[in-house]
## 1
Amino acid sequence: MPRLDLNCDLGEGAGHDAELMPLVTSTNIACGAHAGDVATMRATVELALQHGVAIGAHPGFADRANFGRRELALSAAEIGRLVIEQTRALQEVARDCGGRVTHVKPHGALYNLAARDAAVARAIAAAVRACDPHLVLFGLAGSWSITAGREAGLRVASEVFADRTYQSDGTLTPRTQANALITDENAALAQVLLMVRERRVRAANGAVVSIEVDTVCLHGDGAHAVEFARRLRAELGAAGVEVASLARESRE
C-alpha cells in the first residue's frame, strides 16, 4: 500500500488552522519571521498536539511585507543562523507545551533558493543538524535541498505540491508565471494521485517527469483550502493510500 505524508503551512494567520489541522499529518509552523509570533506558535503547537499532528519549523526570510516570498541578499552563513534561530524558537515553544519539533521545512523564497543553490542548501542542512540531528528536512523533490540533507546525514522528505505546476526539469513553475497555480480542484487531485501511484508528474509543456514523493504540501491560505483537504483525504483513502507522518517515524 502506498504511504504518504500530508503537510500544511500553518500559524501564518490564514484563519483555517483549526479546520485544517485534523486533515493533515504534519504541520509547518511559522517561526516569527515571515509570519507568526510566540503566541501563534504556541496556539498552533497546542492544536497540533491535540490532533496528533507532527510539529515542524517553517523558517523564512524576515520580510513580513512580502510574506517571505522575496529573496533577501544574505550569505549562506547568515541563512544558516536564521534557520537555527527560528527552529530553536519553535523547539522552545514545543517543549513548553509538552511536544517536540520533528521536522524543518523552509518557507517561500528561502525554500526555492535552497532548491537551486547548493551552498544555501548545505547551510540549511547544517543548521537543521545543529538543532537536532534527528530532525527530518523537507525539500523540493529532486532538488539541492534533498541532496544537501542526505550529505549532512539527515533524513529527508521529498516534497511535491498539489496545486503547483511543474517544469520539464522537475522544478516548480515560478509564481510570476500565469500558469504557476492549479486552480481546478479536479486537476490538482489528479496530479497528486498520478504522483503517488506512478511517481511521475506531467509538466506544463506536456512532458512526463519522474519524481520522488514522500510528502504532499497543502497550502493553508487558499479560499477553498479546507474543502480541498477533505476531498484529497477522501480520494487518497479510496485509492488505498495510507496517510501517515514521515517525521514521526524517524523517532520510532
Note: The chain is about 40% helix and 20% strand.
## 2
Amino acid sequence: MSSLLFIILIAVFVVTQAMLYKKGIFERLYISRSFDNTGVFPGDKVVYELAIENKKFLPLTWLSIDEKLYTGLEFEIHTKIQPINDDIYLHNSMLSLLPYQKVVRRHQLKAVKRGFYQLKNMTMTSTNMLGTEEYSIEKEVSASIAVYPNLRDLRGTLIPANTTQGDFSVKRWIIEDPMVITGVRAYGGNDSLKSINWKATAKNQQLLVNKYDYTADKRIMIILNLERQEYSLKREDIHIIEAAIEVCASIASMMHETGIPVGFATNAHTLGPVETNVLDPDAGDKHMTAILESLAKVSYFKKYKSRELLKLLVASFSWGTEVIVVTPEICEELIEDLQSLNNIKTTVISLSRSNVDVPPNISLYHYRQEGEHYEAI
C-alpha cells in the first residue's frame, strides 16, 4: 500500500510541476541589460551587464539565453559565440536560478567599429524541474551604445582644388581665426612667439602677449552630404564614407575645443528610434556629445537629396553662420545646390578628386587620406 501511495505521489508531483512550469516558468522573471557607458570611441572598453532575477517560488534548474550582438563589439575574454553574418553573432549564456535569486553576468567588450548598436530581442529556453519538457520564449530587452567616429588631426590633409603645386596641403586651418584681441598680458612660458605684442612690449619694457577672446558671431554648420544610393556597397565605398564621417567628427571637435558654436546636419539615414538629421550650432560638452552620437548613427544610404536638406537649413541660418560640406565625392549638381546659400561662406571638402569648377564664393578642398598621394589635376 505504501509503495502504491508513493507512486501516486510521484505521479502527482510530476504532473503538477509540469503544469506549473508550463504556465508560469517565465512569469516574474525580470531581465535587464546595460552598458556602463552610452558612448565610446573605437578601441575603448565597455562593460556589458546582463541581470536576471527570478521573483517566484519555482526554481529554474536550467536557463539558456541567446542574444544577438554586433561584431563591432568584441568580447575581451573568450566566450560562447556563434557567427551569423559579417555584422552579427549569437551569444549564449547558461545559468540556473533558485527561487527569488538574482544573477548578474558582466562581460568586458571592446569597441572596434563606429556605429549605433541597439540590442533588442533575446530568446530564453528552459525546462521544468525534471527536464521532461522544454519551453522557449522571445522577449524584448533593450540596450544601446554609440561608438563614435575616430578623431583625426586634419592639419596637412586638405589639398586646395585645382592647385598647380601638385601634392600641396594647406598649412593653416580652413576656418579663419575666430579670435579677436581684447588686450595684452604678461608672457607665459607656454605662449607662442606669434602672440607677442612687440609694440606693447617696447612701450612697457616687459614681454607682453595679445589677450584673445572669441567672436560671438561665428557659427559653423557641418553638413555631411551622402549621395551614394546603391543597395549593395563595395568595400571602397564604405571606406570613403567612413572617412567622410571621421572628417566631420574631427572638424566638430576642433570647433568645440576652440569654443565656436558648431552644428551638424546630414541627408543620410540615421539609426535609432528617432532620426536626428539636424543639430543647430551650439557649444558645450553636451552638444558635442550629441554631434558624435549623431555621427555614430549615420548609415551608408541617403534619405533625401542635398537640395532638400539645404532648403531646410537655409531658413534657419543666423548671421555669421559658415557652412562646411563634407562629401565622399563632388559633382556639378551639388555645386548648383550650394549656390542657393547665396552670401553664406561655404567650404566643400571632397574625399574624391574631380575637375568640377566651383564659383568664387565656394572654397573646394580635397581630403588626403593617410598613405595617399595626389598629383595636380
Note: The longest helix spans residues 235-258.
## 3
Amino acid sequence: MNFHTNPCISYSVRRVCLTLVAALIPAMVSADDRAIEIIDAMEELYRGESSFARMTMVVETPQYQRTMEMESSSIGTEKAFIRILAPRKDRGIATLKLGLEMWNYLPKINKVIKVPPSMMMGSWMGSDFTNDDLVKQTTLTEEYSLTMEETDNQYRITLVPKSNTVTVWGKIDYVVNKEPLIPLTQNFYDDNGRLIRKMEFSEPKEISNLYIPTRMEMIPMNKEGHKTIIIYDELQFNLPEIDESVFTLRNLRSRF
C-alpha cells in the first residue's frame, strides 16, 4: 500500500489497516502467516515509509539517572539518522545507518567512527538499548521463524532465529493486544532459555492519527535497578524534508 497520497487520508487508512489487520486476514491463512502479518505491522508502527520523531530517553541505574532529548529520521528499514539535542554535553552526537553500515559522530573531537557489525548488539549511549534496537538492522520476520498462540484479547508470538541468523537471542516472545492492535511486551531469551531483558510498551495515545504506545521501557534482567525509557514526544510520517540529503556522512558531521 502506498501512503504518499493526501496525508490525512493516508494516516487514517494506515490506522484502520493496523487495527483490523488480524481480523480481516482470511481464515484460510495459516497461524504462522498471520503471525508474520502482525509482527510486520508492529515493526512498521513507528516507522512507515518515512518518519520523523522527537523522543526523550531516560537511563536509570542505582547510581544515577540521565535524560537525553533526541530526534530521529528514517526511510523504510534501510536508512536511519538519530541526533542528540540535549543535554548540552551530548548535544550534536549523531548516529547514521545506511543499509548494514552504521557510523557515530562525536562533535567534541569532530570525529566519525564506523560501528563494526560485531558491535551492533552493543549499548547505544550507555543505555539498555543496543545499536540494533535503535536502527532496526534486523527484520524480525525475515530473520526468525514465527509461531503464534491466541487468547480472547492477545496474540503471543514466539520468534526463534533461523539457522543462518546472526543474533545473541535464542528466542523472542512478542505479546500484542488485539483491540486496538498495539504491542504490549517483548521478552528476549538466550540460547538456554533464560530471560535476559524485556521491553514493555505503555501510555498509548493518538499521534499523527495513529494510536500507538508512546512509552517503551527496556529492562535488563541481569542488572538490578537498571532500565531505559524512551518516550515519543512527536511522531510524523512522510514529511517532504525527510529525503536522501538527511542520510549522508556530510549531514552526520554537520554542526547545529
Note: The longest helix spans residues 7-24.
## 4
Amino acid sequence: MAGVTFDRVTKCFGDVVAVDDLSLDVFDEEFLVLLGPSGCGKSTALRMIAGLEEPSEGTIEIGESIVNDVEAKDRDVAMVFQSYALYPHMSVRKNIEFPLRTRKVASDEREKLVHDAAESLGLETLLDRKPAQLSGGQRQRVALARAIVRRPKVFLMDEPLSNLDAKLRVQTRAELIELQRELATTVIYVTHDQVEGMTMGHRIAIMADGKLQQVGPPQAVYDHPANLFVAGFIGNPPMNTVSGPIVRTASDPAGSFGIGVEGTVIPLPAGHCAAIERSGAKTVVLGVRPEHLRPATEGGLVATVAVIESLGHERHVDCRLADGQMVISRLSSSEPAPLVGERVNLTVDPLELHIFDGVTEEAIETT
C-alpha cells in the first residue's frame, strides 16, 4: 500500500479554479475523507489522483513516485464511482474478475481472488447473476469487489453510497470501515455527507471553493473548527453563530470585556479576552454548539421559540433573537420542552464559546 501527497496542486478549467493550491498528505493505510459541499473541488482532486484529470500546477505523489506524467492504467489505484459503472452484459463473477483478465492473471489465481473478494462482501451466492438482477446495495458491493480484487496501492471512492437508501447507507458504511481495517489499505473517500465523514474517516479534509479549509481527526475538527465555514458545515444542527460589538464595562478589570447581543452582554473568560486582544480583531463572531445552549430561568440571550423539531431521542428548539438571528438549542427528549411562541432565556458556559474574527472569519485561538 502507499500514501498520497498533494504538493501545491491547482486545477483550472478555463477561468474556473476547481482546486486551488492544495497541499495534503494522506498516510499509508489511512482512511481519509475529502468532505465538502457540491462543487468544492473534492471529486476533481480524486480524479487527479486516478489520472483522469491532469494538474494545472503542482505535483501528486503515490508512494515515493511523482505520477503527474504516469498514465491512469499504470498508477495502481482503483476507483469506485457513485454510478457503480458495472458491465450490464457480464455476470457478477465476470465483472469482478475483469481487471484481473486485463492484467492477464492466470485463471486459477483469478478464481481464488474473485472468491476471496466475493466472500469478503457477501456476494458468493450472486456470482452468476447480471447487474440488472441486483439491488442497489448489491451492485455497490460488486463495484467494491471489483476494486479490491487486485489489491491496488490506493482505493479512491467517489460518493459510493449516495444512491443507497438511508438504512442501507448505514449498513454499508459499517461494512466499508471493517473492510478497510481488514485490508489495511489506503482509502480516499469523497462525500458531501458530514455523517459519513465523521463516522468513517481517521481524518477528514474539508474543502470549500477549491481550497482546503481544515484537516484533522473528526472529533478535533468538531471541537475546534478552524473558521466559520467549518463551524457551520460540521455538526447537525450546525454551530450557532451570533455577532455583536465588543463591550467593556467600567467595573470590570482592565482587559476584561464581553460581547453585546440584543441588550445583554455575554461575558468572556480571561483567556478569550486575551486572545481577542492579541488578534487585534475589531469585530468578532461567537459560536456555540446547540448542545451547549441551555434554557434558563433568567439571564443570557432572550429569544422566542419558533419551531420545535422532535427526533425521538432529542429535540431541536429553534429560537429567534430580537434582531432576527436564529439559534438552536439541542435538548434531550426527557427534558421539558418550551412551547412555540414562548419567550425563553438561553445561557451558555463561557468556556464552551468559540470566537471568530468578524472580518477574516478565522478562529481566534484561546490557548
Note: The CA atoms of residues 40 and 193 lie 13 Å apart.
